[in-house]
Write a structure and sequence with these properties.
heterodimer, A: two-stranded antiparallel ribbon, globular, B: mainly alpha, 8 helices, 0% strand
Chain lengths: 213, 190
């Protein structure tokens, strides 16, 4: 069980390892706030969709399973979207259209199809949380690098009350030397590529260690 | 003129892949040969055009009069899923070779965010029918253009001597980044 959970971070990291859910991870990783907000939404949807899909896995006819999964996911995303709109309007505005697009985030449908439809409820739930946190971990990494180079500081604001600043790392003195490129699409692609290469090396090393044993 | 601006804007300036990061999964997956990139491109154009038209009428003649706009996401994704299924059966019957090259990526158009994004964006921007048609052709044309260019670049990358850790997707992403940089130079056109 613990291994299932841990797999989502490095070995089978959904973003850097399987290249799933890339659209949102590149687009909203401009600031730490967006990354954590998006990560939380995706984890929540992933957890509940895995549980529901696993619950109905024995009564779902094989031919129409994909539409069934999509309806489940779309319903969950609509609920999450409404909740975010009501309780964290600032986050809702900055995530914009990408919140709705969580529906077509391949991680969620991928896990429903590859894991939850074949396993019991408890391990599906664990897998959902693990993969969700793996996704969050990945976009937080990208967003920290991008926000730091683009603005000179990493800020985190309370998502439920946008006037309350929780922390700010870095200093205003760095402002004149920031690189605007990192807030643009180019920066997103390059930072993502660097992390993807790094994770490939990490995985290779882990594999070598295992085979040495 | 207005439509031309809209079309050029959607194809070059606000390119769906390079500036909005949508449709990246098939972008990396299918772009290994330029032939399948073209096939995928046409499938995407057809699906987006069809799905946008259906969702347009669905939205203004069913959802809005009944005040159930909050069902937008669910109905749209269902329409798209059904439509993709239809296209898949059509290609399977009429062009088995194309079906083979596209392989698993065809059903994946359902989870191609571009389709849902265009359908939602048409509504969110308040486009009328003509604008919707222009936009939902121009966006996938831009997608196909970048997909094809990228596939050509990747065919050359295969024979290039890249460091081991960067082989495959990482170096492809660097290439995509450089393409995004080049495309951002087109921002002044519109």
């Amino acid at each position: 069980m613990w291994k299932n959970f841990k797999n989502g971070f490095i070995k089978e990291n959904p973003v850097f390892g399987l290249y799933l859910g890339m659209c949102s991870s590149l687009a909203i990783s401009t600031s730490l706030n967006n990354a954590i907000g998006m990560g939380a939404c995706v984890t929540l949807v992933l957890l509940f969709s895995n549980i529901l899909v696993s619950l109905i896995r024995k009564i779902t006819p094989d031919e129409i399973r994909i539409p069934v999964y999509i309806v489940i996911i779309a319903t969950l995303v609509t609920i999450v979207e409404m909740l975010v709109h009501a309780f964290a309007p600032g986050l809702y505005d900055s995530l914009g259209v990408f919140l709705g697009l969580v529906v077509v985030n391949c991680i969620i449908l991928g896990r429903a199809e590859a894991f939850a439809s074949k396993n019991d409820v408890l391990s599906s739930a664990v897998d959902g949380i693990g993969m969700g946190l793996g996704y969050t971990f990945a976009i937080v990494l990208i967003s920290v690098v991008r926000e730091f180079f683009a603005t000179g500081a990493i800020t985190f604001v309370n998502p439920f009350n946008s006037s309350q600043l929780i922390f700010k790392l870095g200093s205003d003195a760095l402002e004149p030397v920031t690189i605007g490129l990192f807030s643009q699409p180019v920066g997103a692609f390059l930072v993502f590529a660097c992390f993807a290469a790094l994770f490939t090396v990490l995985r290779e090393n882990a594999k070598k260690k295992e085979s040495a044993k | 003129m207005e439509f031309l601006t809209l079309a050029i804007g959607a194809i070059l300036v606000n390119n769906i892949v390079l500036s909005k990061f949508l449709g990246l999964c098939p972008f990396l997956g299918v772009s290994k040969s330029s032939k399948s990139a073209i096939g995928m491109g046409f499938a995407v154009i057809f699906v987006i055009f069809g799905a946008s038209l259906i969702t347009y009428f669905l939205n203004y003649y069913i959802l809005v009069p009944n005040e159930i706009e909050y069902m937008q996401l669910i109905t749209f994704i269902l329409v798209i899923a059904a439509f993709v299924q239809f296209v898949e059966m059509f290609i399977k019957k009429n062009s088995p070779s194309l079906y083979k090259t596209l392989g698993i990526y065809l059903p994946l158009i359902t989870t191609n965010c571009v389709v849902l994004y265009v359908a939602q964006d048409n509504i969110a921007q308040g486009y009328d029918l003509l604008h919707t048609i222009v936009n939902s052709i121009a966006v996938p044309v831009g997608y196909m253009l970048v997909l094809y260019l990228f596939a050509c670049l990747r065919e050359r990358l295969d024979s290039a001597d890249t460091p081991k850790a960067w082989k495959g997707n990482p170096i492809a992403l660097v290439t995509a980044g450089l393409m995004a940089l080049a495309f951002s130079g087109l921002a002044g056109i519109v």
